């Protein structure tokens, strides 16, 4: 049975990117050089309401690569994959090529 999680309010579902531990030539990379807290946005919530009742949309969209804080977020396991749920304010920025 396939499950799909749709975040509520201003939550963002992120799948963390696991960097390669060795190069194409087979050289092993140290752990510190491979650690970059980034992930790919899988799903977003509709946003949060302001005091006036206006909808404030989430600042990222599905498919964006984002920079994540070192700590925080809620771990979610779906279909043998590990995801993290963050608030929109907790995401530090987007990464572009």
TrEMBL record:
Keywords, alphabetical: Chaperone
Quaternary structure and interacting proteins, as annotated: Forms stable complexes with CPN60 in the presence of ATP.
Originating species: Arachis hypogaea (Peanut)
Main function: Seems to function only as a co-chaperone, along with cpn60, and in certain cases is essential for the discharge of biologically active proteins from cpn60.
Keyword Chaperone among UniProt keywords: yes
Highest taxon of source: Eukaryota
GO cellular component terms attached to this protein's record: mitochondrion
Key word Chaperone present: yes
Example GO molecular function: protein-folding chaperone binding
Family: Belongs to the GroES chaperonin family.
Protein name: Protein groES
């Amino acid at each position: 049975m396939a499950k799909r999680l749709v975040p509520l309010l201003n939550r963002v579902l992120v799948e963390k990117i696991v960097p390669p531990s060795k190069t194409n030539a087979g050289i092993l990379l140290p752990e510190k050089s491979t650690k970059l807290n980034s992930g790919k946005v899988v799903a977003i919530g509709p946003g949060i309401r302001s005091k006036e009742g206006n909808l404030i949309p989430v600042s990222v969209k599905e498919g964006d690569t984002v920079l994540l804080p070192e700590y925080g977020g809620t771990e979610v396991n779906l279909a043998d994959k590990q995801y993290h749920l963050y608030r929109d304010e907790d995401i530090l920025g987007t990464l572009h090529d």
